[in-house]
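Please fill in the sequence for the structure shown.

STRUCTURE ENCODING:
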């Protein structure tokens, strides 16, 4: 539980955080406790996206929107600025009633948030498959409701969904690309990211995961039958087909990430047909 009497940005909290950051310079994410409050402190990352990932993201986003996108947003190159963007977005979403962690403090290159449980991805380790699948379907319901309310995430993946006190919370709002896109395009990217991140999370096999992927997409569109998002997906399929065609020689040599892309294509083709 949160400690409601701990004021955000209290000087003693900031001092404790800065002392911990100085003592643990090698850690980007720190879990701390201060006066009964569990919190997570994030440093601005010094890592950027790989050039090939940035290129693919630019092509797909460009196919969905005629508006040019800032390269530094696609590459995640302005990490200090993105930390400030995340703080602003979290405060705005929290004020709107969205389940996100409260911002407790921020400083030069860091952000402190209330701790909100474990990731949805971690939840699969101690749950039977049927219960885990139900959680994934619930995550799609949650995304649909989030989108119906007019929001976009930018980092909508199972690793950025937390299970806390029986509720799903969203974390990681460093992405600012949605601020340069129409809402429909930003929400389409959310949907693609979430479905893609769910695929191949266990060893049930690609055929079973294709069935699950299709069920996830159908669940979303049942809860949020957004024609503009369907149109965005249909346009994105042109690039997805081109990418998978070019990547065929490496399909079984590049690990799970590339296999997910091929599987995502099959799921989308079936649901959009």
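FILLED IN BY: designer on duty
SEQUENCE:
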């Amino acid at each position: 539980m949160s400690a409601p009497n701990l004021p955000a940005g209290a000087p003693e909290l900031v001092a404790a955080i800065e002392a911990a950051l100085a003592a643990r310079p090698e850690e980007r994410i720190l879990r701390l406790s201060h006066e009964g409050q569990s919190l997570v402190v994030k440093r601005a990352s010094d890592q950027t996206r790989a050039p090939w990932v940035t290129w693919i993201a630019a092509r797909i986003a460009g196919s969905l929107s005629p508006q040019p996108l800032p390269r530094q947003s696609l590459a995640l190159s302005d990490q200090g600025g993105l930390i400030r963007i995340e703080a602003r977005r979290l405060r705005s979403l929290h004020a709107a009633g969205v389940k996100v962690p409260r911002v407790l403090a921020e400083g030069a290159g860091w952000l402190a948030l209330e701790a909100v449980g474990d990731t949805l991805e971690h939840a699969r380790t101690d749950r039977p498959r049927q219960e885990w699948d139900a959680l994934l379907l619930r995550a799609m319901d949650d995304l649909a409701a989030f989108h119906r309310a007019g929001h976009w995430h930018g980092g909508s993946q199972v690793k950025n969904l937390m299970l806390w006190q029986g509720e799903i919370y969203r974390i990681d709002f460093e992405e600012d690309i949605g601020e340069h896109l129409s809402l429909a395009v930003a929400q389409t990217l959310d949907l693609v990211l979430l479905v893609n991140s769910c695929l191949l999370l266990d060893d049930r096999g690609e055929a079973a995961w294709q069935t699950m992927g299709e069920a996830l997409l159908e669940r979303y569109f049942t809860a949020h039958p957004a024609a503009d998002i369907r149109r965005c997906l249909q346009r994105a399929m042109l690039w997805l087909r081109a990418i998978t065609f070019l990547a065929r020689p490496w399909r079984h040599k590049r690990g799970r990430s590339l296999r997910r892309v091929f599987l995502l294509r099959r799921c989308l083709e079936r649901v959009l047909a």
